[in-house]
Amino acid sequence: xxxxxxxxxxxxxxxxxxxxxxxxxxxxxxxxxxxxxxxxxxxxxxxxxxxxxxxxxxxxxxxxxxxxxxxxxxxxxxxxxxxxxxxxxxxxxxxxxxxxxxxxxxxxxxxxxxxxxxxxxxxxxxxxxxxxxxxxxxxxxxxxxxxxxxxxxxxxxxxxxxxxxxxxxxxxxxxxxxxxxxxxxxxxxxxxxxxxxxxxxxxxxxxxxxxxxxxxxxxxxxxxxxxxxxxxxxxxxxxxxxxxxxxxxxxxxxxxxxxxxxxxxxxxxxxxxxxxxxxxxxxxxxxxxx
Length: 290
Known about the structure:
about 0% strand, Transcriptional regulator
């Protein structure tokens, strides 16, 4: 009952803060006395009615959930933040310890599979420090079983797949990507989901180019065009420009390819994305040495 009161109280504060009456908040879809009881913690609302009410007070469900949690992110979000913190600090030791802790947790309680998922996620970032790091056969088998058991891929699966991609060879990545595209149709119009899909396709394009696999590169390029970048996706558009230049270079159009790659690096500099500019500049130098 305390949780119910808390939810109702937060809803009431949002409604009043936007100067919206109880009647307006219901949208004439249900009685405003029912909404009043919810705000006072006296009764619950069905999911359908809550979604209607949230839409009428112009509040996204994710915003409401965030407030109900007391401004606390999910455990998964906290883990991602910790990973990025160690990665930005170039703290390989702490990242390795985090991986080992998740493995220990999983071994202690195999019925909690999210610990192994977390470990695989962390290992995907460990590759940044040591390219020789590989997923174990158990991890790859678990990854396969998990991803192929999920019929509808949401943000978690898309984010997870993008993060573990360094652990997958091109053949596996290609297979997983084709499977992904069949399982995201429910959410493909949502911007955040679409951004992850674009990023995954772009990673596949770069993997294919690095391995000089023109057929796979052409496949990913075609899919990228189908899921075209919006003007808001400036970072991904710039990476795509670099990748397109690299592909042109591989196909023998060296001058045109180098020009596009330099343009991408220049854009990163103009946007003050120094780390990205430096990263792709080193990539260009490596390409020109081949």
